[in-house]
User: Fold this.
Amino acid sequence: MKVNTLLIVPFVCCCMAFTPKPAGSLMIMESLSGPVTQNEIDAFKNHIRSLELPAPNSGNGWVFGNPGKQIEACGLMYEVSHDKEILDRMITLCDDALSGRDDILPTEKGGKLTCWTGKVEPVWPSSPAGKLPAGAGVEQGATLGHMAYCAYLILQNPAIWNEKVSIGDPNNFGATYKERALKYLKEGDYVIDNWIIPHFIRTNDHNHYYFPGAPNTYKANEPAPWNQAWLLTDGFTRLALCHKVLNDDPARLAKYIAIVKPNIDWFIGTAIPNRSAIGSDCRVYPYSLAQPRGMEDTNHFAYDSEGLVLAYNSGLFGLTLNDLLPFANTYIDVVLGTIRDGKFAGRVDGTTGTGHGGGDDFVRDEYIYWADIRPDAYQQIGSIEIKTNKIAQSPQITARLLWEKNRRHLKGL
Assistant:
């Protein structure tokens, strides 16, 4: 069975295939239990050293493609190891992302493309390179979330603030770790202020995420599909965490929370109760409220899942374990609990279709977070990844699983 281990395309609009770059040395997981070992950390470091940077304006790579996922992987492994070589690789990726933003990237390198607004905007075009007008929407929040994650990790560690970043400062983003973090935060807020809030937040409707009308033609005047909504929430959440650590802008922090919370409540409140075959409390819901008769597939549900856990772990929005359990149960008891032709269910109701709803024979990296909510499923999820040989070549899967292994060890599990 052929399974694409690194490409996950969460929505149809302006998607672009990302071909995995030549792999570095193989990663390892010596055991599912105990502390993360130095061998596991070293294998991850050796692997990411050879990962190549993407070409500018290569579609949604910084959103949900390998480049964006590698930022997340480095962040998780830095949390585990506190190894600055991993942090520096994360910074290299974030520098590359920021320098490739359309309003920053020079024209001769493919930047300064006119967006559907008729202007050059602070976005990473989701459309293929050179296509005009350039496409961009709420998915921009994911790129902000990746960079703000790096900023947050630095800001949590004052001991390194005044140290020079070892890779240098080729883009003049800030020579020290703190300066670099503040640059990512400032530019993230800039995108929120100049792209997201003016176009996608309905301030007269509970701050819900909606696409605008003309000249925008993508889902005009429709609510953002849930997976895209969560990508935007990830950006707000990570930026808010940075401001909370710095305690530098209480008004902005409150504003971000006031935008995100009603959208989370909207998602949870509109999901429909369901029961798994073993009787656990689950949920079903459509891909979008604009398409209420459809059923969310497991490609898109991955981003809903990741966003829920990130929001819960942030402690910013009043989410409880009981809010998340029905969605964790949906993946673990319905999706993983339903196997047809060697694949897990392709939709949240346990059915399987084609395309995004075709199902997988492995656990997508975003779903590994559910092992933190349902600790009983950790061994099952880890065993699936090992059986399907995802550990060796997928930084995002390996990093998330090792991050979870570390958390379990610290909890004495």
